[in-house]
Hints:
- This protein has about 190 residues and is an all-alpha fold.
- It has ten helices and no strands.
- It has helices at about 5-20, 30-35, 40-45, 50-75, 80-95, 100-105, 115-135, 140-155, 155-160, 170-185.
- Helix 4 (about 50-75) packs antiparallel against helix 5 (about 80-95) and helix 5 packs antiparallel against helix 7.
- It starts with a helix and ends with a helix.
- The model has no long low-confidence stretch (mean pLDDT about 95).
Amino acid sequence: MSSVGTDTAILRAAAALIAERGYHGASMRDIARAVGLQMASLYHHFGSKQELLVLLMREAMTDLTREVGEAVAGAGDDPRAQLAAAIRAHVGVHAERRPEIFVADAELRALEEPGRAEIVALRDRHQALFRGPIDALGVAQPGVVTSAVITMCTDVALWFRSDGPLDADEVADALVGLALDGIRGLP
């Protein structure tokens, strides 16, 4: 297996174990065992569990922000269409990449500096993609509405199952309807 392939396997194993057990419950030994490496070999690829966590979160947040940003940019000038596109892209990534995204959403508390500041900045960039259309809709308390919409969409990583009654697109459509109808009803 190439170094890049090994790095990918390590990251996937780390994401799965951290998603299942939490950052503090998943050890480097568990991660090494999951990919069939000796501890020394694992540390050759990644110097610490914190380094692994930062990389996992960086990749997940960068990919999520890129997907949502492209969707919003492609939605035209209508803020309702932009928000719908942001929700659909966000839900799609959360349904497709559940372990990595779950870790990115849930393990901010485990990050140490300077990684924490980096990931918070990435989250802020992502949140701005929702906040722009919500601001343009002129709702009262746009910060609360933005947080509520993102949280609703983010929780998909907790409960979505590909073999469930709805596919990811149907879940996204339901959440788009819920968000836009809810915003329409706000003062």
